[in-house]
Amino acid sequence: MPVIVHIGYPKTATTWLQKRYFPNIKNFNYISFLEVNKLFIDTDFFTFNAQNTRMELLANSKDGNLLLSSEFITTAINAHWHHGYYSAGVAQKIHATFPDATIVVFIRRQQSLICSAYQQYLKNGGTYGFRRWLYSGDVFCSEHLYYDRMVEFYDNLFGEKQVRVYFYEDFKEDSNGFLTSLNNDLGLVVDMNSISLKPENVGLRRMIIPLLFLVNHFYKKPIGLKRYIIHVPGMTSVGKGIYKFINPLPLFGNFLSEDKMLKPKDKLKLHDFYSESNRRLANRVGLERLNHHGYYL
Hints:
The chain has helices at residues 14-21, 33-41, 50-59, 85-97, 110-123, 130-135, 147-158, 168-173, 175-186, 209-216, 235-246, 258-261, 264-285, 287-292, and strands at residues 3-6, 29-31, 66-69, 102-107, 163-167. By secondary structure, it is of the alpha/beta class. The longest helix is centred in the C-terminal third of the chain and has 22 residues, at 264-285.
């Protein structure tokens, strides 16, 4: 009974995988993030019943092959890191339920993921400026992207052979080639002709940022992660409308880029913070691959 658990990271084409790819896998029963969150995240650690969870999931499976996916397993990127306790507890729940599972981890250059995550924060209603978001620790925590620590934790739980680490950059460079390799590696049967490679999420255009900042100050969501002046019902829809209808228009400038968002001093700080972790990760995934994709080393 093969079980695959995709744990994220966030901002590594996770939404595309969950909407366009995983549901089209023919030989695995796909369990969406909503169900995964309900069973493994929104449950008390000390009262969690692994046997009941296992039985519930298998009861809904047509052939016993399960593919579970939720980027929240590694902790939502804009929900603080909680010093790793959150993700460690969920990992232990998964291991107690499916000790022989194959764990799938997607990683992305930290400096690239950070820029994408901040834009997602704005889309979700955030009001912090980029550097306050990046450095305050109120929303984003840099330790979240110590990939070597997360991979090592899962290696120790499941065994290194059962933990597969994939590069988001490989997917972006050659989507068809990457997916063919992924299918072979994990034993997935997919009709590739039915798969659309159109991205689910795109970045923000430079000139809509002031509009989002303005609108986002007039509703509470997300609570505790922003400042707001007063809550005006319906403003969430206005914010979503800006992103959906205005953001696609070239009139509103170029899309935000990593080089435009990160100043030289930011890049230096991030390099100093992540290079040691990435060098440790190189022992697991290969120095050449990290260097090829521009990870700080």
